[in-house]
């Protein structure tokens, strides 16, 4: 009798694990000192892959969390933990992290990301931009030509008392049915983030890239059709919005050329575990 085929859920888990192992192998060097650890189910395998390298490999490394789940992961694994604001300051600036690994809900053709499906995005963005190299780790379900194709909503972190007005503003920007995320089934009432905020999930039609724009299609929100960075800028201009789950713009390597170190939200590469056990790497 032949062995039963793995379930779809098991295939997804092994895809995440394979992606994590390869991402860590290719981006974590023994000389690295400060490492960002993101949130979600895929970074669990990132931490596993780091631990598997052995204590001699990671004993001098300090791991920076992106929220309470991430903090727990680092602690439970026996890795050295420090908060983002505890990095040493050298020549007047906090040291950059060497690398940050994080998951994603959707990744487009230019490595823009949607994040926040698990209500973590604000600290994730702070840790990602503090890193010289940001690496996304995911499974095959997350790769899309354009954001909001498979993952239809943009998670937006808001000050709770601003929620009614932010919802109205989102509708005016073309989001058909934005909604405050519920904490159910595990928590009655709204989902509260690690920062004491709420999440609004705002659906939008697929987000365009600059190369999609034409004189007729300007990506400025007509009919709710936006280009990624134009929508991100507009959202961040809305009082009450604390941070958005769009990670866009440029990556760490490009940031150096632009003189904008410490502001890069895009990964240099996304690792997607595939259903047949391989890893597809999308590089900038
Ligand atoms: O809010 C959660 C974070 O942005 C996660 O990194 C993202 O949702 C991906 O999570 P997972 O690895 O569980 O798919």
Automatic annotation (TrEMBL):
Protein name: Ribose-5-phosphate isomerase
Reactions catalysed, as given in the entry: aldehydo-D-ribose 5-phosphate = D-ribulose 5-phosphate
Taxonomic source organism: Emericellopsis atlantica
Domain of life: Eukaryota
Biological process terms in GO annotation: D-ribose metabolic process; pentose-phosphate shunt, non-oxidative branch
Keyword Ribosomal protein carried by entry: no
EC number: 5.3.1.6
Keyword Isomerase tagged: yes
């Amino acid at each position: 009798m032949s062995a039963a085929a793995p379930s779809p859920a098991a295939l997804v888990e092994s895809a995440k694990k394979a992606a994590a192992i390869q991402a860590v192998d290719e981006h974590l060097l023994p000389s690295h000192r400060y490492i960002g650890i993101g949130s979600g189910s895929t970074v669990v395998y990132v931490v596993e892959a780091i631990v598997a390298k052995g204590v001699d490999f990671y004993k001098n490394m300090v791991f920076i969390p992106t929220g309470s789940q991430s903090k727990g992961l680092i602690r439970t694994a026996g890795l050295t933990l420090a908060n983002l604001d505890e990095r040493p300051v050298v020549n007047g600036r906090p040291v950059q992290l060497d690398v940050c690994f994080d998951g994603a809900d959707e990744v487009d053709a230019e490595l823009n990301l949607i994040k926040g499906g698990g209500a973590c995005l604000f600290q994730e963005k702070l840790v990602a931009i503090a890193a010289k190299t940001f690496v996304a780790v995911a499974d095959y379900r997350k790769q899309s030509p354009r954001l909001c194709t498979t993952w239809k909503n943009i998670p937006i972190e808001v000050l709770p008392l601003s929620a009614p007005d932010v919802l109205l503003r989102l509708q005016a920007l073309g989001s058909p049915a934005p909604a405050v995320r519920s904490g159910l089934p595990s928590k009655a009432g709204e989902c509260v983030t690690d920062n004491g905020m709420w999440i609004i999930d705002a659906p939008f039609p697929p987000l365009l890239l600059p190369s999609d724009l034409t004189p007729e299609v300007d990506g400025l929100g007509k009919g709710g059709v936006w280009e990624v960075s134009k929508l991100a800028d507009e959202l961040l201009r809305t009082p009450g919005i604390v941070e958005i789950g769009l990670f866009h713009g440029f990556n760490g390597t490009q940031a150096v050329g632009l003189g904008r170190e410490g502001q890069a939200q895009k990964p240099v590469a996304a690792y997607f575990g595939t259903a047949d056990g391989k890893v597809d790497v999308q590089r900038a």
